[in-house]
Design brief:
Helix content is 47%, strand content 14%. The two termini are 36 Å apart. It has nine helices and six strands. The protein has one domain: Collagenase (Catalytic Domain), CATH 3.40.390. With 182 residues, it is an alpha/beta fold. α1 runs parallel beside α4 and α4 crosses α5.
Length: 182
């Protein structure tokens, strides 16, 4: 089940529900998943309540409690606000970003933990996002060196080489990078 508490351009509950079904199948996750797309304010509240972190985040996954009904795989909460910001920064649509975050959440519900699994989740996420036709995956882009993050479009890093004027070539690395988003 999908709940779009905050609308996302180009995305309907049915479209996201179909995507989550494909993502679950691809990840080998059985059972139902509830996906809530809401505000950063709500994600901050959930992050504080369940993780003790008083800050908004893009996606949270909640595995089922021990006594949950059989056939329930868990919940995923996504910030539409952060997804829109990331999409704008990375050059893809907010709807695609929501799907990237939903895939990330589904992988967590499948038992993956990128903080402790020595890259297993990152490799799986990268493979599945290609299979599902998504731009660069969440873990993948967070591991890309900062200089390339600005150049990542449609899942492929653009060349880091660029033509520079003589004055730019003489500038120090510090002065060349000031003022640009990281």
């Amino acid at each position: 089940m999908v709940i779009l508490q905050k609308p996302v351009p180009g995305l309907t509950e049915d479209t996201l529900d179909r995507f989550v079904t494909r993502a679950k199948r691809s990840a080998g996750l059985r059972g139902s998943v509830t996906v809530l797309v809401t505000t950063s304010r709500e994600l901050r509240r959930l992050n504080q309540r369940f993780r003790g972190k008083d800050t908004p985040t893009d996606v949270l996954s909640f595995p089922p409690p021990p006594l949950a009904a059989k056939g329930f795989a868990g919940d995923v909460a996504i910030s539409a606000d952060i997804a829109s910001q990331n999409a704008r920064r990375l050059g893809h649509s907010p709807a695609e970003e929501i799907k990237i975050l939903a895939l990330h959440g589904v992988l967590h519900l499948s038992g993956f933990d990128h903080e402790t699994d020595n890259g297993a989740m990152a490799r799986r996420e990268e493979r599945l996002r290609r299979q599902l036709g998504l731009p660069i995956a969440l873990i993948e882009r967070n591991s890309v060196p900062k200089i390339l993050k600005r150049r990542v479009r449609r899942g492929r890093p653009q060349s880091s080489r660029r033509k520079a004027s003589a004055s730019q070539r003489r500038a120090s690395p510090e002065s060349a990078s000031r003022g640009r988003a990281q």
